[in-house]
Specification:
The protein is α/β, with parallel strands linked by helices. It has one domain: 2-Layer Sandwich (Double Stranded RNA Binding Domain), CATH 3.30.160. The chain contains 4 helices and 8 strands; from the N terminus they run H-E-E-E-E-H-E-E-H-E-E-H. It has helices at about 5-15, 70-85, 125, 170-195; strands spanning about 30, 40, 50-55, 60, 90-95, 100-110, 135-145, 150-155. It starts with a helix and ends with a helix.
């Protein structure tokens, strides 16, 4: 399976998983003084018990009518890794769930070329922050043992230009700027909530 196919299948599963699992209601409150556009913390989240991070693979979602080649997807992932990892240097990053570990997953959801038929397939929580016509960078924080969402934050203040297979070209400098912008915002958000 190609990287693109894997990415689309993976992202579709990540963004729709709530539709196939037992529904449990969680209560969230708006995070105070957040630097990101939308931020919610679970009302019973206790961040004090987490002292290391499990950084999960970045989810990337483009609608099915959009063609992005495998090399561009991998380059996009690498740019975000390069932007985030140095800023997370004050955290212990682990590869496997363990006691005291919080899972962190980033997703880039580009709905700028989405049709109305693409949006209903997103999880309800994602639809709350990702609208047709917009590009959103989303971070979710979970307890890997229980899979409970501890927090969710989204921002659309940067809009890098991607080649969609329509003859356009990806503006890689705008992708790098967006990755740096979001890395700063979200690591600050993480620091504020974990008390680092």
């Amino acid at each position: 399976m190609s990287i693109r196919s894997t990415t689309l299948v993976y992202c579709f599963a990540v963004l729709t998983i709530a539709g196939c699992s037992t529904t449990t209601r969680q209560s969230f409150t708006v995070a105070p003084d957040s630097t990101v556009e939308k931020a919610f913390i679970a009302t019973d989240a206790d961040f004090s018990k987490y002292h290391q991070l499990l950084a999960e693979d970045m989810g990337i979602f483009f609608p099915q009518n959009v063609q992005v080649n495998d090399e561009d997807i991998e380059r996009l992932r690498q740019i975000f890794r390069d932007a985030f990892l140095p800023k997370l240097g004050h955290y212990t990053i682990v590869d496997e769930p363990a006691p005291g570990t919080m899972a962190v997953q980033a997703s880039l959801i580009d709905l700028r070329k989405a049709g109305s038929a693409d949006v209903p397939y997103l999880r309800a929580e994602v639809r709350d922050v990702a609208k047709a016509g917009a590009l959103v960078f989303l971070m979710e924080f979970r307890d890997p043992k229980t899979d409970k969402v501890l927090g969710r934050a989204a921002d659309s203040s940067a809009a890098p230009t991607f080649a969609y297979g329509d003859g356009g070209a990806t503006d890689w400098s705008s992708v790098e700027e967006a990755a740096e912008h979001w890395a700063t915002l979200f690591v600050n958000f993480l620091d504020n909530n974990l008390g680092k």
